Amino acid sequence: MIDKTRGSAADAVADIPDGASLAVGGFGLSGNPIALIEALLAQGTSDLSIVSNNCGVDDWGLGILLNAKRIRKMTSSYVGENKEFERQFLSGELELELTPQGTLAEKLRAGGSGIAAFYTQTGVGTQVAEGGLPRRYAADGSIAVASPVKDVRSFDVAGAPRDYVLEESIVTDFALVHALKGDRHGNLVFNKAARNFNPLAAMAGRVCIAQVEELVEPGELDPDSIHLPGIYVHRIVEVGSDIEKRIERRTVSVAQAASREMPEGA
């Protein structure tokens, strides 16, 4: 039996070196592998290039690595909830490869599937294809690094010729993901919204490290319920169901808000 379990998050990430590239699961703050991120912070790993939908918030998720200035580059589709991210990017301390969300998802999936590149309509006629998007600013506010021009070709799909832009896939040194359940072989089950970028990030990492709320024995998971097969997962660590989970913004209806303000028994 291949037992992929590790005794702690610290043990699981111990060999991630400075300068490594990481694919990290999560969407907003849902499904963030926070125990692995905190372990990476504690061991002092720096100069990281991270691919993730976003960079958490100022004090949670990937934001804690950003605040410690451990991240050199982010490849993301959304960066609007982190003021420190904005400051570092505009000051030239952080490189950003801003990527359309669907394209980012497919770049990760393609990388994990052995596909080198693919053509998509998303970005045609914009700076995504034409180049010139700022990736890193200089100290004086000028653009130090800009996105390159990408190949655009016309394809006749179902009798309708259209332009498509070439996007290269993403493969990273490591992947960090969060799942609800996993077995010792690395088979994973994700819960609701946490099944977002986590499976795709896992596929893209040459070494995938998964934190799970519950670790079970092989055979306990219904094969039809497994969202990611263990072939993509190399290490797994149990973090417990009481691990902290946050949301970015709590939204309730007007009626709910009013009911909470009413005195007890009213």
UniProtKB/TrEMBL annotation:
This is CoA transferase subunit A. Keywords: Transferase. The keyword Transferase applies. GO terms for molecular function: transferase activity. InterPro entries: 3-oxoacid_CoA-transf_A, CoA_trans_fam_I, CoA_transf_BS, NagB/RpiA_transferase-like. It holds the Pfam family CoA_trans. It comes from the Bacteria. Belongs to the 3-oxoacid CoA-transferase subunit A family. NCBIfam families: pcaI_scoA_fam (TIGR02429).
